[in-house]
Amino acid sequence: MIKGKEVNVISRPILYSFRRCPYAMRARLAIQYSQVPVELREVVLRDKPADMLHRSPKGTVPVIITPANQVIDESIDIMLWALKQNDPDGWLRDDAESLIEQNDGEFKAYLDLYKYSDRFPDFPAEHYRSQAEGFLKRLESLLCQSPFLLGESLSMADMAVFPFIRQFAHVDKAWFDAANYPKLQFWLQQRLNSIMFAQIMEKYPKWQPDTPGVMFGGG
Ligand SMILES: N[C@@H](CCC(=O)N[C@@H](CS)C(=O)NCC(=O)O)C(=O)O
After folding, report:
1. At the N or C end, where does the chain have fewer CB atoms within 10 A?
2. Which ligand 1 atom minimizes the distance to the CA of 22?
3. Residue 99: exposed, middle, or buried by beta-carbon count in 10 A (0-12, 13-18, 19+)?
4. Where does ligand 1 bind, in terms of residues with CB under 6 Å?
5. What percent of the chain has a predicted confidence (pLDDT) above 90?
6. What is the pLDDT of residues 165-186, one digit of tens each?
7. Backbone phi, then psi, for 14, in 5-degree steps?
């Protein structure tokens, strides 16, 4: 037994998160679903905690620090980490990779150009939007075949992708609602109406160093 010495031991994994970040949303969705207990620390991106930056110098959220001091700082890896511990409804899927790759690569790049089109005045917003639509068309065609992206039940693909479609829809909600993506609109609305989405979008104050974060996930 160590006496008279402060030992920095954490009992549950720490999740550095930012409520509105779509990458952090997908991580929280997987953690909430798998019921892995974590201590959530709400981050403000312009004032990131020193401990987070020390553990993960690239400075993006979400980040998990496990009790064994393992650092997981890619949102898909956090999803996999949670699902490998508990996956009651079979969200883990080998065939999710190609969709997630297109989402995180090409689609996210066009989404940013569309969302921040005033910073990229070479083209109007509609130009960037129509480039992003390539991915929407792929999703719409998948959802014409089955209620979820990879078949008859929810999978990590749905959960990894929908926070980004939500962001896309919010750039011009009236346009999105009127566009010819009926299956995608329904699928998005279902995800947004879910209890799980409400649970992961709860608001927390900014985490202050040397204070406990919020219990999240399970337990
Ligand atoms: N590839 C990373 C991307 C995460 C990411 O870019 N997160 C944004 C917030 S949505 C971030 O932390 N950006 C850093 C910043 O704005 O300072 C992942 O999947 O976790």
Report:
1. N
2. 10
3. buried
4. 18, 21, 23, 45, 59-62, 74-75
5. 94
6. 999 999 999 999 999 999 999 9
7. -100, 135
Q: For residue range 87-143, what is the model confidence (pLDDT) as tens digits? A: 999 999 999 999 999 999 999 999 999 999 999 999 999 999 999 999 999 999 999
With tokens 């990879």, the residue in question is: 150
Starting at the edge strand found earlier in the chain, the sheet holding 38-42 runs 71-72, 63-65, 14-17, 38-42, 214-216
> pLDDT (tens digit, 9 = 90+) per residue, 101-111?
999 999 999 99
Which tokens belong to 193? 């109406």
Measured distance CA(107)–CA(67) in Å, rounded? 35
Cα→Cα distances 123→4, 117, 130, 131, 137, Å: 64, 8, 11, 12, 22
Residue nearest to atom 14 of ligand 1 (CA): 60
pLDDT digits (tens, 9 = 90+) for 2-27: 444 444 556 899 999 999 999 999 99
